[in-house]
Please model this.
Amino acid sequence: MGCENMKTMKNLYSYYLTLPAILIYSIFFVVPAVIGFYYSFTDWRLDRLEIHFVGWENFTRIFSDKTLSLALKNTLIFAVATVVGKNLVGILLAVALNMRLKTKNLLRAIFYSPSILSILVISILFTPMLRTEGTINQMFEAIGLHSLSQAWLTNPSLVIWTIAGVSIWQSAGFQMAIYLAGLQSISPEYYEAAKIDGASSWKSFFKITLPLLLPSININLMLTLIGGLKVFSEVYVMTGGGPGNASQVVGTIVMRAFGEGSWGLGTAVNTLLFVVVTIIAIPLLIFMRRKEVAE
Amino acid sequence: MISKNTKKISALVMASLLSVSLAACGSGNSGSNKAADGEGGGSGASGKKVTIELAISKSSQDSAFIQQDLLDEFEAKTNIHVNLQLIPAEQTTTVLQTKLAVEETPDIIQYNLASATTDLNLERNFEILDNEPWASRIVNKDVLSASGHIYSFHVSQDTGMQGVVYNKQMFEDLGLSIPTNFEEFLAVCEKIKAAGITPVFMPYKDNWAANIWPAAAFADFVAKNDPTFFDDLNSNKRKWSDIPEFKTFLEQQYEVYKKGYTNVDVLSDSYDMAVGKFLNKEVAMMFMGDWLIEGVAQQDPSMRLGVFPIPALDNPSLGASPLGGQLFIPKKAPHLAEAKEFLNFMASKEVAQKIVDSKGYVSNLSDVTTPELPEYKQDIVDNYITPKKTVFTTDAYMLVDRTELYRLLQDQFAGGVTPEELLKAWDEKFAQLMKDKGVEGF
Model:
């Protein structure tokens, strides 16, 4: 959009027209976020009338408490595992289902369908399947892969990966849909030209498909990363953070802190999550934007 | 006014931050607003219909106080309509805390007295009911009182018992008698296992279920050997890990599992499977409260279950849980007078008798008679209550949220902590929670 256009726009519509949107955004996001920021430096509790400013106390507690730091670690594991898993599976599905297959539309619908279901429903369905004598282990036993039969949700060192796996299963179809849209906007001429020049299909994937898919990759990375850092429902339904505290994530810790009546601490954990998401997401966004190529 | 606004805003903060409670708070709030706007102020005297709000956990839907015919009768008599706010079970505490904090208070709350003391700040938030017309007719004031005042109402004084729930028929068929120490208990398990039945069902996916054994065993030991321990504990003079026997009790529970006397997948099985396991005669015993017996009897009245004390010590006493399901009136209730009228109605001789009869309660009102009790309850009265062989579980002495203890107990079964580490970790968390609460000595 050129500069002249902007000027005419400015003359036609006053900036005041953005006020309603800004107002709603401020009331429902900016103000609570700022107030929450303040409360995370207080000892706000259920059983106290007065709220005192306590400086960094809540934050030092987060980093000295074993459970809280374990929750941070689990959240990062979950986020990285799901970002990689969802995008890798999503892109492979998209490329495969962009080929001339007879059952293309049917398969697309099937792979997409888990993402329509609520993650709560999926978690409830998976919980019995992942039991020690559940469907998944029975399946492995039946085909002789005894070593793959695991205590999926009750082994403390495995549980967060299991939950990440379920999340990938659910969401990869959604990532696939975005990648498919991206693939279909790539003009077939590029591939024709590459073919004439004798490029292999691997080469055209890495030199044409991937670069031109970057906008879709961007949006998918952002969505999966932020979604991964904010994980709550899957963990809450499948394990409640257990066994013990083995699968606690930031979301369930916030819930726990509020449940214990430590509202200041709960808000602090949330503020920390907000800062972490911002620190990771914004530079990534800027970096990825630069890499995008105009078609 | 300013502080009220600040609190309103903080409600918004909480709602937007805590994504789970968003839906719950939102719907709850809109419900109460609608009622308040629609029906107008609390002028019951003017003859206009008043609506009062009663907040109750969804898991307590079978509460005697919210049976529709009683609510209808109350409305016909007083022109006061009772609107129920059903709160999802696992969010009840959070939602009620929020409602009280932002002063969107319901007029009546059903909750457990012991948890109200730890979770809801009883003294700050709730009316003292010492001078209500029914208070003088209460037989056992302790089950309704905290720090010397009546804060709650109930027609029952039956506190509920915790121990080993067992299938009487199976014990008779196998010629077993009730074990009175841990060795005998293991021997009983062995015989039941030999008969092809799972001796003990442990649904420790629900971590609180792992607390029944230690809660009764700890309290029983303390009552018999070290009666000042809980006072010392709550003033930070001693710690949980100071008593070596506690470690033994935790090891015992784990031993039952390790010896193969339980369901295989203790960390995947949940409490809601228990009734079915007993109905199908898959299991013989479970460490649980006697409320489970009621649950089984509702499905199949011919099932004969009973409860015996946790056999951690020799000649153990039966654990008694604090009474639950009381009604409370918040100080900030918009319709205080009408809420009290509701309690008067429930306490009236006819209504209370009706409730006590239909629920099989042990009556707590001097002019209401206790009906004939079910077999298991009569057994408890004869074998434990009358000879004074009961003891309040640790739940009655703990002033803080116990979720972290439950998690640690679950972690013991996941192989994450030893009993020793468990008690150490709980000492730390306990001290932190007591300090946060502002208890002297911490």
Residues 12-45 of chain B have pLDDT under 50 and may be disordered. DSSP finds 18 helices and twelve strands in chain B. The two ends of chain B are 35 Å apart (CA to CA). Chain B touches chain A at residues 9-10, 12-14, 16-21, 93-94, 97, 101, 119-121, 124, 205, 207, 264-265, 267-268, 400-401, 403-404, 407-408, 410-411, 413-417, 433, 436-438 (CB under 8 Å).
